[in-house]
Amino acid sequence: MSDSPSSAASTRPVMDLLVQRQLDNMSTGNGAYLETFMRMVKRAGIDIRIVFAPYQSFGNRPWASVHPRLSSLAREIVWPRAVKIGNRYWSLSPRIYARFAVRLVKEAARRLGARIVIPSYLGKEISRDEAEIVARTCDARPAAITLAEYSSMGPALKRLKARTLHACLMHDLLSDRAERFREGGQVIDFDETSLETEIDWLSSCDLIFYASANELAKVKLHLPSVQMAWVPPDAPDYQPTEDTGKPRLVFIGTVHGGNTEAINHFLDDIWPGLTAKAPDLELQIAGSIGRTLTPARAALPNVKVLGRVESLESLGGANAIGIAPTRFATGVSIKVAEYLLLGMPTVAYPLALEGFGDVLDDLVVVANGPAALESEILDLVNNPARRAELSQNARARARSRLSHDTAIALIQSALADGAK
């Protein structure tokens, strides 16, 4: 099944984006980051064709859709062994309907109290037959670049016969992901893999793009000849924010295990002490993460759960102190970039900065542990000059440090070399 959201004729080179998950949810970190990556590719002068793995992309249900924010960035969407009815794609494979039946039984048992983990397919290596179907689909109309989203889709690249640059987008280093989840006490509901296996999946790549600068450095040791680039979180052109109102704390986040653990830790372990010393201090929680709070946490004194905020500028400014009490993470902490771009003084645990390498270290107040975080927050609340200085530095420097110019130049250079 092929669908062309953007039907206008184009002579621009094409990137095939190979996907093995559903793309209907933009409240997750990998959904937001994929949008960032696709926008960068478009700015590089490349059109995008999304090619879904025919079975794994459906997960445990026989229907799926593509979020409009992603479909609008694609010139074409191809989903083999599926049919599109309205805005939904429906699987034509009996195996998907069988999986759906099993999922319904498990879900019913879980709602009755059974402790059942319904696994996701994240990290699961694309099967041989699916890889063949995806490769044949791509070979029929070869793209200038064929990119696997996640390393586990990499084996499909090795089955391509047509001439094309092989590439991968690394939201996470999957071999590190389980270790991070385990350290954070999170449920591991995805396939675990080793670094050696992941390097093999990536071994045919000419280009690899990373959400995390630190993960780039780690993989580069094993694949030194592959060209790599860090693609930082998007840097929207936020309008200057009025530095008005009382000092307040802000936590922005999508639904993600690391965000859930961070906000729960802050509310349980730090917020009571802060409000005892600064009883008028307010905490604003923005984004889809708010819906994961228990009623008791959401009802804590001076906590405001805002949900989705249409204009993030309304949260920013020198009197809004961004917090990132991140104790377990994969990929990159997008909230830190958002805080800085919004001109917010920012306090974070060291792990929240890990995905940025060292490019933001001098713009963020780093706190090594709960006591230090509480102390730094209280100092910022009571020190308007320090807040103003941090806000000014963030506004002046963060945007240039989060530029996509290096990744765009890598794409354009690779295409130029391939044309020779």
Structure description:
The protein is of the alpha/beta class. It has helices at residues 29-43, 68-71, 94-111, 128-140, 154-157, 174-183, 195-201, 213-220, 257-277, 295-298, 334-341, 370-381, 384-401, 405-418; strands at residues 2-3, 14-19, 47-52, 63-64, 76-78, 82-85, 88-91, 145-149, 165-170, 207-210, 227-230, 248-252, 283-286, 303-307, 320-324, 346-348, 365-366. The strands form 3 sheets. Strands 1-5-3-2-8-9-10-11 form an 8-stranded mixed β-sheet, sandwiched between helices. Helix 9 (257-277) crosses helix 12 (370-381). The relative contact order is 0.11.
Q: In percent terms, what proportion of residues is strand?
A: 15-25%
Largest sheet: 8 strands, mixed
Query: Unreliable stretches, pLDDT < 50, 5 or more residues?
Result: none
Order of neighbouring strands in the sheet with most strands: 1-5-3-2-8-9-10-11
What's the overall geometry?
globular
Tell me the number of helical segments per DSSP (H or I, 4 or more residues long): 14
Radius of gyration, taken over Cα atoms and rounded to an integer in Å: 22 Å
Distance between the termini: 34 Å
Determine the structural class based on helices, strands and strand pairing.
Answer: alpha/beta
User: What is the number of E strands?
Assistant: 17
What's the helical proportion of residues?
25-40%
Q: What average pLDDT do the residues reach? A: 90
